[in-house]
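ok trying again, last paste got cut off:
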Amino acid sequence: MLPALLRACHPEPAAAVTTVAALLAVSQGAGVLAVASTVLASQLAVGWSNDAIDADRDAAVGRADKPIPAGAVSRRSVAVASVVAALATVGLALLSGPLAALVATAGLVSALLYNWPLKSTVVSVVPYAVSFAALPAFVVLARPGAPRPPAWLLAAGALLGAGAHFANALPDLAADARTGVRGLPHRVGPVGSEAAAAGLLFAATAALAFGPPGPPRWYGLAAFAFAAVVLPIGGYLGSRRPGSRAAFRTVLVVALADVVLLLLAGPG
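nice, full thing came through this time. structure:
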């Protein structure tokens, strides 16, 4: 059962977000172990919650890769694991101080609210923006003295999260429609979602390139110029070739560049 339970936590994104949080803690001078363990517990809670809530939908669209519909683990076990991980998140977050714990808990609650009931509403983008902004805010507050997170960092996190929501929804729009999911990406459609993802990630790049104090760094300017070139190219290729994933891929590349910029920003 344990391997199936681990598969139900969405291990790839959980590992990716935890790694980014740990690297961000290093760049910000925060406690790496406390930050990484808190973020990992939070990611486990969100991933398990998602699979437990969506078990019926996953079965309806034939998601045999999902452990619950495949019968590899019970829905109840996954739900209990989610609750335990959520409680652990709060306890681990307190190791970084009360303000940091408050922000980490808010980010977790926001992500859980996305899983239910906000995923199928017009405000489905809001939890992504809130939770992505909460991550760097938590890391900054975890530094000695709990300094206030700068506004540009919060804006960059929120924009990156909102863009990620539209990009993440693109591959599943058709399957989601069959099971009644009607979040904001589903309402604006694939073309609108690609445009929204590109615009939001470009804005995130601008915040990361020009937001930190002092003159912009060369790598920030390079990333900004890169995004300004590749995003329109991806959009153009996507419009010329029906079914092309060019726009989606360029959005992912710019998102990766934004993560690198976030890690290079240093203490704000």
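cool. The radius of gyration is 19 Å. The first helix runs from residue 2 to 7.
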